[in-house]
Design brief:
about 140 residues; 2 domains; 6 helices; elongated
């Protein structure tokens, strides 16, 4: 073994691991509970089973922090759901407008009338908004 392997540089080690996210005791307990239930209940289980299993095995001293993490996770999920619903509703309004403009385009095409440039521009702008491009 070379001398560098016998005395590794702590700074190099910490440089390698500094970007690895650190699991909380609750996250580690939850992950372990999921692994355990996956192994012991191949027929399946509910997410609540994972949480209860993790909570029951969590040391009492770690429960306040875990409870805070649960509250924060629930709150984050609620905010995310609200944002997703708002995005869906906004996009749905655009989809309705786009469908109407596409119907106009198809009606004109069916009778061999060229679509006005404004109609084509509206369709392009609505489509770009829906896919996240510039309007």
């Amino acid at each position: 073994m070379s001398p560098s392997n016998q005395n590794p540089d702590p700074a190099a080690f910490f440089g390698l691991v500094e970007d690895i996210p650190e699991l909380s005791v609750w996250e580690a307990s939850f992950d372990a509970a999921e692994d355990f239930l996956t192994e012991t209940r191949p027929e399946g289980f509910q997410v609540e089973d994972i949480g209860r299993h993790a909570w029951d095995r969590l040391p009492e001293r770690d429960r306040p922090a875990a409870l805070n993490a649960l509250f924060y996770t629930y709150w984050s999920a609620m905010v995310s759901d609200r944002e997703e619903l708002a995005r869906f509703e906004r996009d749905n309004d655009m989809r309705v407008l786009l469908r109407g403009r596409l119907d106009e385009y198809e009606d004109l095409a069916a009778v061999s009338i060229p679509a006005p440039a404004a109609l084509v521009a509206d369709i392009a702008a609505l489509a770009r908004q829906l896919v996240g491009g510039a309007a």
